[in-house]
Amino acid sequence: VQLQASGGGLVQAGGSLRLSCAASGLTFDHYHMGWFRQAPGKEREFVSAIMRYGTHTSYSDSAKGRFTISRDNARNVVYLQMYSLRPEDTAVYYCNAITTARTYWGQGTLVTVSS
Question: Which of 18, 19, 59, 108 could form a disulfide with 92 if both were Cys (CB 3.0 to 4.6 A apart)?
Answer without folding.
Answer: 108
